[in-house]
Amino acid sequence: MLPSIIPFKKELVLFTGIIEIAAAIGLLIPSLQHLTAWLLIVFFISVLPANISAALRRIDYQNKTTNGPGVHYLWFRIPLQLLFIVWVYFFGAR
After folding, report:
1. Could you report the per-residue pLDDT of 46-84, keeping only the tens digit for each?
2. How far apart are CA 87 and CA 85, in angstroms?
3. How far is CA 67 from CA 11, 51, 77, 78, 93, in A?
4. Is the Cβ–Cβ distance between 56 and 70 less than 8 Å?
5. According to DSSP H, which parts of the chain are helical?
């Protein structure tokens, strides 16, 4: 999913997974909820370019090939990402 110029792809994907788990835990702790929500919004915005890049390069996540749905994937992924941002803002950041 990541462009070829980015090194340590597997490690970076593992790290983002750890961030997502830590954020889920942080949202459950009332004293960390507000900060975690804002950091999660920043995270969602920062991974959006990778999703757009993968869609434009027609990455098929299941088969690890380049014959996936392409730009059609953006019509699903970008609104979903925006929904996540609004959801986290409404329930955690405000």
Report:
1. 988 888 888 888 888 777 788 888 888 778 888 999 999
2. 5
3. 25, 15, 17, 20, 38
4. yes
5. 9-28, 30-56, 71-88
